[in-house]
Specification:
Order of helices and strands: HEHEEHEHEHEHEEHEEHEEEEEHHHEE
Number of strands: 17
CATH architecture of the largest domain: 3-Layer(aba) Sandwich
CATH class of the largest domain: Alpha Beta
Strand order of the largest sheet: 6-7-5-9-11-12-13
Shape: globular
Largest sheet: 7 strands, parallel
Radius of gyration: 23 Å
Length: 479
């Protein structure tokens, strides 16, 4: 690319720091048609022999498209395992809005590409809307009620049995990549639980000490603004991080499910909608930095090939992925939750009923509480949140407890244990049989589902098959 073209592109990109989208109702299935109107993603065939941006630009120019191309970027420059060809995906940016169907057809006629598709937009799965432990009904539901104008009665034990689970495991430093709106890094109830990129933290300021192309990515990266500023301006990522990793027994606020886990912050948005490409880059970062869990509280009805490739890449790396089913009260598939490599999470209430707005369907894997979820906020305080956005990290937190208890567990084993240990909520939800996954997640039952787990009979006295002589204080090995 010559210097004049590079200068023009740089100026245009500086002048255009936001993406343009069509003005349609994003609360409906019309979201399927929502994408960045002047961008397209292409994946070159391996046989095309494209190895860098210069070669890709020359190839695209040879197609003589009628639209003015102002930028071409390789979406992922390096990854641990490129067997799926993630580095062969490029993002094309045009000067004006393009006719998407027409340009996809023209590009595919070249025979050089595996696919060409829009840069789809994703939507966060939130609805508007240790002194506080009693407010966290989803951890320990004793029928408690709060000072609301209208207080719906809660059902005792319609929770994830967190207290019982913590008797078995209180978590270790499992790294969880939260792809979202950023984080209140200095929130008092998260201190000590922020993931650190030690090569950068202990390195030289202004230098790419870990040679990943990102300067001073101390705690993650902001892919929206392409910098290391991770502040949460939308109050979505911070509550999700809190559900995972609020410190427990610190005489402050609330309690996270895995209170020693480390949050890797990957910021992709300041609003409700954001491009797929930010998420794909974030997934690759999580892979390269050895995250164990990826948390995605957003959705799209568009089954993108680029998204699928990124998900498969994380799956091949053994990373557990959880995603929200979204909040449309619809059975239409939502991605990434509907991908088989991802645990798709629907939402329930404090009565173990399907939350009114939660999506549902045979593509859902599991359900978790999603109404009145108490957590930290971006202002340094606390608040209640609704949405399947907050159900997904509850399941992810249980996965982290399992990995803490037994680090040798594989991705497939963790998923199987979680899905085999649900509480059956279908008697309470007869209209949704088979559409809320295995039922509501249960952390305690998941932990005792690990083969070889020692169960304290003093707290859980009862009959065990083949061992009727057990007494309180004894122990039994599960599995």
């Amino acid at each position: 690319m010559n210097s004049i073209l590079s200068l023009i592109i740089s100026i245009l990109l500086i002048l255009s720091t936001s993406f343009n989208v069509s003005a349609i109702n994003t609360n409906s299935d019309e979201l399927k048609n929502l994408y960045v109107e002047n961008e397209i993603l292409v994946k070159f065939k391996e046989s095309t022999n494209i190895h860098n941006e210069i070669e890709a630009l020359q190839k695209i120019k040879s197609y003589k498209l009628k639209y003015k191309l102002i930028d071409l970027k390789q979406l992922i420059t390096s990854t641990k395992d490129d067997s799926l060809g993630l580095t062969r995906i490029y993002k094309l940016t045009f000067f004006n809005k393009i006719n998407m169907e027409q340009i996809v057809r023209l590009l595919m006629q070249s025979g050089d590409l595996e696919y060409a598709e829009p840069n789809y937009l994703l939507q966060l799965s939130a609805s508007p809307n240790d002194p506080y432990f009693s407010m966290q009904w989803y951890l320990n539901n004793v029928g408690q009620c709060y000072d609301y104008p209208i207080c719906s009665p809660r059902t005792s034990d319609a929770d994830i049995d967190a207290i019982e689970a913590w008797d078995l495991e209180t978590s270790s430093n499992i790294v969880i990549a939260v792809i979202d709106s950023g984080l209140k890094l200095n929130h008092p109830d998260l201190q000590g639980n922020i993931w650190e990129n030690l090569l950068e933290v202990n390195g030289q300021p202004g230098i790419d000490d870990d040679f990943n192309g990102l300067v001073d990515d101390f705690y993650g990266w902001n892919y929206k603004d392409n910098n290391n500023q991770l502040q949460d301006n939308f109050n979505h990522g911070t509550p999700i991080a809190g559900i995972y990793a609020e410190r427990t027994n610190n005489l402050l606020g609330a309690s996270g499910i895995c209170s020693n886990c480390k949050i890797m912050t990957l910021k992709v948005t300041d609003t409700n909608l954001f491009p797929l490409t930010f998420v794909v880059s974030s997934i690759n970062y999580a892979i390269n930095k050895n995250a164990k869990i990826i948390s995605m509280s957003f959705a799209t009805p568009s089954p993108s090939e680029t998204f699928r490739t990124a998900i498969l890449n994380a799956h091949n790396a053994g990373i557990i992925m959880v995603a929200s089913a979204n909040n449309d009260n619809s059975s239409i598939l939502r991605y990434p939750a509907a991908y088989p490599e991802v645990i798709g999470v629907a939402g329930t209430t404090a009565q173990d009923l399907k939350w009114t707005s939660s999506n549902y369907g045979t593509w859902v894997d599991i359900s978790a509480p999603s109404l009145d979820i108490f957590s930290i906020d971006r202002l340094g305080s606390y608040g209640f949140n609704d949405g399947t956005s907050y159900a997904a990290p509850i399941v992810g937190g249980v996965a982290a407890l399992l990995l803490s208890k037994d680090p040798s567990l594989t991705k497939a084993q963790v998923e199987q244990i979680i899905l085999n240990s649900c509480d059956d909520i279908y008697p309470l939800n007869p209209l949704y049989i088979g559409m809320l996954g295995c039922g509501r997640v249960n952390a305690y039952r998941a932990l005792i589902g690990i083969p070889g787990t020692l169960l304290d009979v003093e707290a859980h006295d009862g009959y065990v098959s083949g061992q009727s002589d057990l007494t309180p204080g004894g122990r039994v090995i599960i599995g």
